[in-house]
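Quick start: read one record
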Amino acid sequence: MSTEAVVAHVVGVIGLIMLVSSVLGSVVARFKQPTVIGQILTGILLGPTLLGRLPYGVADRLFPDEILPYLSVLAQVAVVIFMFVVGYEIDFRVLRGHSGAVSLVVCGCLLVPMALGAGAVLALPSAFTSLGEDATGSRSFVLFLAVAVSVTALPVLAAIVRERGIAGTVPGQLAMTAAGIMDLVVWVALAAAVAGSSHTAGRPVWLTALLAAVLILGLAGVVRPALRWWTERSSARFLDQVPLAVVLMTGCAWATSSLGLHTVFGGFLAGLVMPRPGGSQDADLLKSMEGAYRVLLPLFFVVTGLSLDIAALGGAGLAVLGLILCIAVVGKAIPAYASARLARLGRQDSATVAVLLNTRGLTELIALDVGLTAGIIHQRLFVVLVLMALITTAMTGPLLSLLDGRRRAGHGGTTGAGPTSAEQPRWSEETDVIHRPT
């Protein structure tokens, strides 16, 4: 295939992917599901699970080997931009006055599922070896499974919270703040898992960790102050911050990749380091970055979906899926509910926090892609974990609707109108106090 033919094919395939992703996103939205569900389904449907089973080699004609590297590059660029936005949107200022409640939820929702995930690998190694995993005793594998079942997708969670009108309420604020902190911890743990994998076998783990620490200290101690000084200059305030962010993001992605880690870690670090003028996020920068990754991100789901063959799971795969689902759901929901109750939330609000923090979505898929690329896990377990991410994310909408119905019934409403977000309890801005409407 000539260069011109490859370019034409890539452009045509991108158009098809955007169309299918948009249609499925609109369909799932009618069922009160986040758009990411439609995008994940796009990847599954255009992969071996459905398209690959059609006659006449339709899948091979649509996705020939010659175009896959180009799609993969664009997909990874989208993921790096997405991770930059995730890091940039983490706001540690919301911890002021709320650190006690947030700490309870974070500890419960991280330590319990991580312990259950690691314990499952150590107690039932044969369940994972049946899927072709031959390194179940390695630290990287154990740590990766612990991370995989404890992820919460902050971007998807934030979208759900906004759509449900609970962004300023106690459960919405608590869930989003806890998810932001957990994102940070999870990516650090995932970086540790990758650093200890065969992917970085050419360099000792301690040296990789040392170089990564030097990079982080350099970004925090040198790059961030320099960027803050530049952006606060009167002559720079009116300049477009997007080129600066792109240079920082790509430079960090290159640096982490050179260390043997994944480029997504660089994007995440760049988002954390990028200065916020006046302490607030730059709305124009966020809009530009979100626009870029929303256009390209469906490619990531399709590239991921090309390696998913759900029909090939077999009985062993379904058994492991059941085990992973139990660990992921129970390990998140019960600690989240208990921690929220300890933080003085009511039963309904505590249940809302538990449901929200069980959302995984895109963040989980990126983490799984990192593990697959690093050789920590293989295809069949990858499919199991993707299905777990899809199922747990799809559960969120119906469970929130169920809780809304119970809340209306509890308020004795006969019109079907439950309490609005303004009527729900809210946090004080200065102290860890819950204000309830009178």
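The radius of gyration is 22 Å.
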